[in-house]
């Protein structure tokens, strides 16, 4: 029997994940590779989270707590928000999907920047809504332009702060002007996956603007700064009435037991978070200096990754770096044909990246 899905489903460009390191090593005949492509924590997971996971293993025959009661309570206490304003997700992209499924109708418009996180577009297309793209300006998210793109059909806006893949941020003052310019019934989603790494004191933080006057959502994750990407846990903070809507469609066990206990423990691991930020910030400064010595232009970032203009075909540089056992990200598909994106690693990984890039560019 032939299956004929709707055209709007067939129009979706699938998310293309990277290959496992083991497979890349097999294909290229190399070993001891380092991965600086996916913005992961170079220190690994929080030690407190690992201990919590080990302690919880004997309970895997039980279903997870469907409400995430203890994690929600911990987050509410730490963030100073009401528990009923928090929605847990299997990664923050789970919540992105909940938002589009619960709030959008076919033909509604959703504004996002170009380039941006692929899941904004994918989840929009899944419900037959329309993605409206606003190009970045000098790699930054142009809030005034985004506000100007809002029409009577606009139902949702996705903003990423810090932005991926550029690492730029918008200020609190600029965000305040943006909120004043956009109708109060438009859902504003601020994806703050990398907010812990921000050093700019002027950077907007969506939590500062949360109230019941408009549907504003702040998304955060444990995947980056807390090193828990492999067990997928994120959360959204929003007005309680909006959280109640999402909880109507949220799968009852969308955050597994190990993810819940690990996230709770990670929130207490202040020493690990402090160490992570030091490694990333020191690594950024060192990498900027070394690459600039090579005559390359680095673009300052408020995240744990940054862009480099290698002045050559980035796809070719990516392939040659693979042969050196260093995995980075080509930005060709993002519209930056000579740029690569590099995640900050451990000091020895950063040094290996620089040495490999020198060899490749020669």
Automatic annotation (TrEMBL):
Cited SUPFAM superfamilies: PLP-dependent transferases (SSF53383)
Modified sites of kind N6-(pyridoxal phosphate)lysine: 224
Record's keyword annotation contains Amino-acid biosynthesis: yes
InterPro entries named among the record's database cross-references: Aminotrans_II_pyridoxalP_BS, Aminotransferase_I/II_large, HisP_aminotrans, HistidinolP_aminotransfase, PyrdxlP-dep_Trfase, PyrdxlP-dep_Trfase_major, PyrdxlP-dep_Trfase_small
Catalytic activity as recorded in UniProt: L-histidinol phosphate + 2-oxoglutarate = 3-(imidazol-4-yl)-2-oxopropyl phosphate + L-glutamate
Phylogenetic placement of the source organism: Bacteria, Pseudomonadati, Thermodesulfobacteriota, Desulfobacteria, Desulfobacterales
Quaternary structure and partners: Homodimer.
Protein name: Histidinol-phosphate aminotransferase
The encoding gene: hisC
Pathway participation: Amino-acid biosynthesis; L-histidine biosynthesis; L-histidine from 5-phospho-alpha-D-ribose 1-diphosphate: step 7/9
An annotated GO BP: L-histidine biosynthetic process
Matches recorded under HAMAP family: HisC_aminotrans_2 (MF_01023)
Family under the similarity heading: Belongs to the class-II pyridoxal-phosphate-dependent aminotransferase family. Histidinol-phosphate aminotransferase subfamily.
Keyword tags: Amino-acid biosynthesis, Aminotransferase, Histidine biosynthesis, Pyridoxal phosphate, Transferase
Enzyme Commission number(s) of this protein: 2.6.1.9
PANTHER family: HISTIDINOL-PHOSPHATE AMINOTRANSFERASE, HISTIDINOL-PHOSPHATE AMINOTRANSFERASE 2
Transmembrane helix keyword on record: no
């Amino acid at each position: 029997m032939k299956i004929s899905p709707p055209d709007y489903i067939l129009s979706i460009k699938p998310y293309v994940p990277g290959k496992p390191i083991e497979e890349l090593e097999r294909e290229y005949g190399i070993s001891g590779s380092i991965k600086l492509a996916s913005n992961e924590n170079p220190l690994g997971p929080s030690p407190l989270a690992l201990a919590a996971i080990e302690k919880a293993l004997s309970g895997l025959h039980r279903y997870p707590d469907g409400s995430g009661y203890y994690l929600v309570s911990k987050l509410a206490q730490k963030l100073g928000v009401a528990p009923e304003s928090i929605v847990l997700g299997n990664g923050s992209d789970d919540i992105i999907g909940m938002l589009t499924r619960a709030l959008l109708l076919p033909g509604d418009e959703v504004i996002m920047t170009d380039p941006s996180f692929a899941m904004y577009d994918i989840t929009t297309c899944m419900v037959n809504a329309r993605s409206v793209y606003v190009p970045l300006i000098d790699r930054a998210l142009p809030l005034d332009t985004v506000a100007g793109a809002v029409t009577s059909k606009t139902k949702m806006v996705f903003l990423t702060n810090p932005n991926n893949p550029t690492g730029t941020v918008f200020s609190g003052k600029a965000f305040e002007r943006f909120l004043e310019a956009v109708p109060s019934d438009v859902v504003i989603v601020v994806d703050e996956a990398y907010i812990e790494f921000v050093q700019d004191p002027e950077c907007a933080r969506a939590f500062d603007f949360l109230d019941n006057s408009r549907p504003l959502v702040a998304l955060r994750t444990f995947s980056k700064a807390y090193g828990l990407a492999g067990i997928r846990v994120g959360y959204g903070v929003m007005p309680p009435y909006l959280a109640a809507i999402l909880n109507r469609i949220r799968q009852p066990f969308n955050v597994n037991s190990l993810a819940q206990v690990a996230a709770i423990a990670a929130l207490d691991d202040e020493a690990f978070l402090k160490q992570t930020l030091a490694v990333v910030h020191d690594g950024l400064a060192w990498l900027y200096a070394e690459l600039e010595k090579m005559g390359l232009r680095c673009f300052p970032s408020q995240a744990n990754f940054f862009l480099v203009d290698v002045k050559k075909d980035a796809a070719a540089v990516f392939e040659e770096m693979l042969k050196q056992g260093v995995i980075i990200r080509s930005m060709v598909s993002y519209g930056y044909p000579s740029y690569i994106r590099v995640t900050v690693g451990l000091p020895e990984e950063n040094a290996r990246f620089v040495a490999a890039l020198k060899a490749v560019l020669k």
